[in-house]
Amino acid sequence: MLLIGIDDTDSRLGRCTTHLAYRIVDFLLSNGYELGEYPFLARLNPNIPWKTRGNGAVCISVKVDMGSRDGERIIGAIKEMVASNSMIGYGANPGVVFLETHRYEPVIRFARDALWRVVSPKGALQVADAYREHGDGIEYIAMGNGQGIVGALASIGMAVAGLEDYTFEVIAYRMDGMCGQPRCIDEASVIAMDKATHPYTFNNYDYKHARVLIAPHGPDPVLLGVRGDDPGTLLDALSMLKVREPMDGYMLFRSNQGTNAHLANMLDASNLKAYTSGYVRGTVASEPMAMKGGHTFFALECDGMGDGDGRVLCAVYEPTGLSPLAQMLGKGDLLEVGGGVRKGTSKHPKVLNVEYIRVIDVARRVRYMNPICVCGKRLKSEGRGKGYGCKHCGYRVRDAERVEVEVGRGVEPGLYIPDMKAHRHLTKPLHRYGMRPGRMRMDLGWFRRHTGVGTDHG
Ligand code: ATP
Prior knowledge:
The chain has 458 residues and is an alpha+beta fold. It has helices spanning 17-30, 69-84, 105-116, 121-133, 148-159, 187-197, 231-240, 323-328; strands at residues 2-7, 40-43, 56-62, 95-100, 137-142, 167-174, 201-202, 205-206, 211-212, 222-228, 247-255, 277-284, 289-290, 296-301, 311-316, 334-342, 351-361, 366-369, 380-381, 388-389, 396-397, 403-406, 414-416, 447-449. It folds into three domains: 2-259 and 434-457, 2-Layer Sandwich (Alpha-Beta Plaits), CATH 3.30.70; 265-364 and 408-425, CATH 2.40.50.1010; 367-404, no CATH class. A hairpin with an 8-residue loop joins strand 16 and strand 17. Helix 6 runs antiparallel to helix 7 (231-240). The longest helix is centred in the first third of the chain and has 16 residues, at 69-84. 41% of the residues are buried. Adenosine-5'-triphosphate (ATP) binds next to helix 5. Adenosine-5'-triphosphate binds at residues 7-8, 10, 16-17, 44-45, 48, 50-56, 93, 95, 114, 118-119, 147-148, 150-151.
């Protein structure tokens, strides 16, 4: 099996690495080659600053020997396609890795790191060189500033990692001349599809803000993408959509999207590193601060809670919809908070940008009140040391004391995640918790090219 990792072929001006992968798969299938599994769309650390959009990279596995004539032909053709279809010079720094091995451990370890922290192209080259020295088949190209090699190698590691959780996405592509034009997707058909396929598709439509979520807005060739847990349901979902433009075709990907995989590591609260992703555990150190614009900040005291003692400043931004909850938190509440570390500057301290809050325990708040009378009403104090009396039944008591009454907090233990419109590619939707991933066997019809027809069946 030849594993091909590709990354960083696009820029904000256009193109998309998944689209190049779609073209490469078209080339492979139309030349009679067989894929080992669905192409894998890996989402890597979403908190690195030099990503174009969603920090995605793709791995394609094809059943061929790297050293064979076919292997050479494939590698040559893909190198050529990457060089001529990338936005080199406009912000793209393409990386491609071809790997044939039975030793997946080093590449999996590399991918696990790239998911939550910053790794260097040098580190990727070291992994690649170690494979070569061991006699495995490996070839790579790193164009531009060489950064793309990181995602290219990591996508391979993610694809072969035997992930416990994964999802799928069917991505439909536009005809060449359509890029840059508005996408005309019938909103009612998105809602109908969402309702018909729930819970096996997700993040199709934001009912709270009445927004279609399946289509991007940029000049890239992606027409739309539907995400979910079952490949067959995704193909059905695609056929339910009414889109008023012909599409070039579509491809199904397996992915780590919607799995929260980037937040699996506990961060060292005593030494938070900029651009890392993960979680910390601690108690709220002081009352949260609400800022103008609806953002809320609170400090978490993490001493004795895990990896390193220290205080972590957490930022909850208004668009996440988590600010009202954050404002109800109070000193002593025990939380687990997941997110990405924003670099500190001379103006702003280093903060954890919150991606979820798990309220583990709500601190008790009490008030002291006069005791209750035998008749059920509250007693009145008769003055210092003089006891209490009841205005209603006349009952009097001398040696009673004020009693502790628990104050309702309005916060319940549980998991709180951002509103759908603020979800990142890796955010795990609430309904996916406890869900088992779908089967990986490839469905008929997982790839179509040159359909030339719209999906408007209306
Ligand atoms: P799109 O979502 O449209 O594919 P993108 O957001 O994936 O775009 P890229 O253009 O691929 O952005 O840029 C991301 C760059 O960051 C790539 O060069 C990739 O190799 C690199 N990269 C990915 N993860 C890490 C990481 N953890 N540490 C360092 N570099 C990384």
